[in-house]
């Protein structure tokens, strides 16, 4: 933006930063740790929904500052960013916060179309590529607890009814890394 005078003039306004597409940073969140720091800061201040998603991944997974990471991921859900709904929801489910996680997943309308959740999962795998994602003990404990309550088909990968949907999403997340 700074190389094109018209863009520089437009970039003064917060609405530009609020609506700016940050797809390159959502796909590679660690990039903004060394580059684009000023842009990220302005996007965060302007309320861009993708900026707290990137910041949340950096803090929660890379820096291991879970409280701040969860705060930023939660902020990203307020901006209706679907990948933020999925990531925040799955992290909360895995941490044992089942009601919060399920409520967040409801916004993805997974009961009507499970494809949205699958697409979000693919994007999140891309975002977390190259980041060491630690499997926390609470993830394993929650996964075991949830599996024990499933009465349908917990071992079949393709079938995901309302009873086992959350377990299978959690299992993918925990066992992926």
Helices and strands in order, then pairings?
Blueprint: H1 5-10, H2 14-19, H3 23-27, H4 31-34, H5 37-46, H6 50-62, H7 66-78, H8 82-94, H9 98-106, H10 114-128, H11 137-149, H12 165-176
Structure described in brief:
By secondary structure, the protein is mainly α. The protein has helices at residues 5-10, 14-19, 23-27, 31-34, 37-46, 50-62, 66-78, 82-94, 98-106, 114-128, 137-149, 165-176. 67% of the residues lie in helices and 0% in strands.
Which keywords apply here?
177 residues; mainly alpha; At1g67623-like; At2g35280-like TPR domain-containing protein; At2g35280_TPR_dom
Structure overview:
The chain has 177 residues and is mainly alpha-helical. The chain has a single domain, classed as Alpha Horseshoe (Serine Threonine Protein Phosphatase 5, Tetratricopeptide repeat). The chain is 67% helix and 0% strand. It is built from twelve helices and no strands. α8 packs across α10 and α11 packs antiparallel against α12. The longest helix has 15 residues. It starts with a helix and ends with a helix. The mean pLDDT is 86.
